[in-house]
Design brief:
Blueprint (H helix, E strand, L loop, with lengths): L1 E6 L12 H10 L6 E6 L4 H16 L3 E7 L7 H7 L7 E6 L10 E10 L2 E9 L5 H5 L4 E7 L5 H18 L4 E3 L2 H12 L3 H8 L15 H15 L4 E6 L5 H12 L4 E5 L2 H14 L5 E4 L9 E5 H4 L2 H4 L9 E4 L7 H10 L4 E6 L4 H10 L4 E5 L1 H6 L6 E7 L10 E2 L2 E2 L1 H8 L2 H14 L4 E4 L3 H13 L4 E4 L7 H10 L4 E4 L14 E4 L6 H9 L11 E7 L3 H14 E4 L5 E5 L4 E4 L3 H10 L5 H12 L5 H6 L4 H8 L2 H7 L5 H19 L7 H11 L9 H13 L2 H7 L2 H4 L6 H15 L12 E4 L2 E4 L5 H33 L11 E10 L13 E4 L12 E6 L16 E6 L12 E7 L5 E12 L2 E5 L8 E2 L5 E10 L11
Parallel strand pairs: 2-3, 3-4, 9-14, 9-15, 10-12, 10-13, 11-12, 13-14, 16-23, 16-26, 19-21, 19-22, 20-21, 22-23, 29-31
Antiparallel strand pairs: 1-7, 2-5, 4-8, 5-6, 6-7, 17-18, 24-25, 27-28, 29-30, 31-32, 32-37, 33-34, 33-37, 34-35, 35-36
Amino acid sequence: MTLALFTGGQSADPGFQQPLLPQLTAALASCGAGSRIALCVSFIRQSGLTLLRPDLLAALARGAQLRVITSDYLNVTEPVALRDLLKFPQAQSQILIYQSQGEAGFHLKSYLFIQAAEADGLQGCGFVGSSNISRDALTRSLEWNWCLDVTPQSSPQARDSLQALHAQVDALARDPRVVPLTHAWIDEYIDRYQQTSLAAVRAITGAQEQEDPCEVPSPNAVQLEALAALRDARQRECQRGLVVMATGLGKTWLAAFDVRQMQAARLLFVAHREEILLQAQRSFATLAPRQSSGLYTGTTQQQADWLFASIQTLGQDRQLEKFAPDYFDYIVVDEFHHAASPTYRRLLAHFKPRFLLGLTATPERTDQADILALCDNNLLFERHLAEAIDLKLLAPLIYHGIFDHTLDYQALPWRNGQFDPKALETAFASKKRAQHALAQWQRLHQNRTLAFCISTRHADYMADFFNQAGIPALAVYAGSQADRHQALEQLDAGDIQVLFSVDLFNEGTDLPAIDTLLMLRPTESKIVFLQQLGRGLRRHPGKQQLVVIDLVGNHKACLYKPYLLRQQLRRSGGPGGSEPTALAAGCHINLDPQLLPLLDQLKRGQRLKVVDEYRRLRDELGYRPSALQAYEAGLDFQKLRQQHQSWFGLVRQQGDLTPAQQAVQEQCGDFLLQGVETTALTKCFKMILMQALLELDGLHQPPSLTALSLRSREVLNRYPLLAQQDLPDSLRQLPADHPSWLRYWRDNPITFSTGGKAGSQSSYWFRIQEERFVPVFDLPSEALETLHELIQELVDLRLAEYCRRTTKRQTATEGPMPSQPTVIQLPFYPNLKIACGHFKQGDDSQMQWLSHPDLPATVDPARHFLARASGHSMEGGKQSIADGALLLLERITPTQAGSITGSTLAIELEDDAGQPQYLLRVVRKIGPGEYRLKANNPDYPEIPATEQMRPFARLKAVLTTPEPADEDDA
């Protein structure tokens, strides 16, 4: 028998100052399959349960069984802790409550861990003493606790004592005053709990904690701004919206605050990992302990106000059918960037909450593109890394980009946007590279280091290498010997200095004590790179800054990181915040001199052709980009179509269409191009109709005209600005089932889409049959599913384009827009210098939407655009064009240009470096197949036309040149 006394707090004898928490965590670590754990304490505080939760969950994951018996004695146990206990796996947990009824005292503080039950008795350990489950009692209060440890060698007396404690626990569980804990019991208990004063709780528990148990957390400054933005959005009748906030700013808490702000009764929180769901559930329960919550497993209908569900479970049709579309008032979808769009679309098409909030820390619109489409293109609030650091909500960052001279990354196999994993593993588990990493770490590290590795073999190799060098280290990954939570505790206590990890800490885990990151793997994904940074950016007492030690190789997949980091850390200054200035306070980016020429080489390669831009974007994302992502990345779709006919034409040429997609593209390419991708949009109705058709699964089951009109109105209502702009005043206030609305929608997009009006280009693809909207696609069912996906991709693109155009119009008017008349706007390219210069490929700021009083009503944004003349070669003659004149141009292609003789054309010519140059000239034919380009100004000689020159636009008019009203991209 081993009997030991553990004394916390300021004991007279320092040798006895051993708090109970490490002893409990060690006992839990020894519990696995067949083990039984019993916690019998008079009260439980959330602060203490938080300390024990990771080890309890780990023991349950190994197959242990848990019994908890606590009480309502003196109303000290926290309701939020009780809610938390109900989240433990039900099949392995029994949570009981002793009802004191205001009379019988309940003073137990006992912890029992049975590892084995042999014929000659039990084996395990038990603690009996003075510590309840609270942070103070387990870590720093003056507490006395006896521990009895029974092994096969222990005496019969010891075995009898452990057996007696076990028998008492069983007897207590059968006491009539002990009942199973339920959400209904907690609801009734809250009133009694909230009548207990903070002073009384502290007197009973001896707690030194400062939080008032009856108070809830308050929003920080950023969250207050976001809450105002969300409130304003709902006042504008937005039903969905996206919030982008840097890791560490409290996205989950923001959602909880907004649910309270909207006073939503029924909530659904969706994420892709159970760990995120459990963390969110705890946050929401802390804020609103009266609300019952549950983790939705799909096996039964949870009777809870707030459900937390994985997209993998709830995204299934059979699960969605269990809920009425309006069952939830508020839906939160976290970490949108992990969504497989069809799965999320099924969920979002099914539910019709009062409001849906998408949350992400994804920093760039390219990465946000598909996410934003799911939120009806409503980006409601953004706060990024630099702002969070300046507000002292996150720690400053010092980045050291260290050239990895130990291997040639260019020689490593590169497939599908990433390095070959096996080749990386072999290259990285080398002594030379480990010595390089160790030397840099020794030079730059702080106190607690988290290192990111490529594989389990790599993590084990690095941990062994550091240990051999006298630096305590552990490797942690799924299935590793070291338990993740215990390893973090050892790192926090200083027992180890470095934790080598594989994919366990990329996201969703708070590690505030980490002050050094060692990046030993090439992170091809920008999202993952920023998530890894987020693991060390939390503030922590004594932590001054985060140090990042990054081994950077000679490959494009590594070299993007300094650029991305500078973008994220850079403040904005100047008028309107448009001019870049210094990095956020306390932040520095230090690069090895050997990296500078490599970065210059990468920068020189930024100006690329459309196909090269596409390939680079595909490599950065690690998968085939969607049309919307390419649009947000700045691809010129007009030029793309000139060179590749269509978006899916380019994707197919690059080998990125699946066989099923390729077959559908061959059969329905005309519809995808003319019916969706390039169809003129003077109003949004065509795309709203198409979105409604997709949400009704109308390719498989043609909807009635009434159902299609009703769903179209629901979709349009999710875009209040579009409805305000495009709907007549008389219709905006009518309900969706009003006869006038149904008649209007049938007479407009439905009729146009079925060939009912002269000039309709869509009569081939849809028809009205027995009052149903019937697609004319002779395809098998599985091909219709593929066509659905391709149409959705293009609808997302067109709605985003149209929403951006509408936003610019709204910004230009500085107030609500009248619905009539519709203002004509065309794409305006300020950097397309006709006659000299070049059209820069790049971000959206290179294109603006511009209206002009002289624009003809017949212009089409899909064909017409505006640019300025540059130079004096066209001054003179009947149509003199001055330097800086605003030109209206129409795009042409060789197949539809018609006669060009005598026309004034914009002509593209690539220079020796492959960069396009643009000239404006009158085309003069001098012989069969022979042309010369004539300037209006006689001082400029004629230029012979060559095969390298490509006419791409025809001059339609020279407009007066007012300055554009909306110069900045929204």
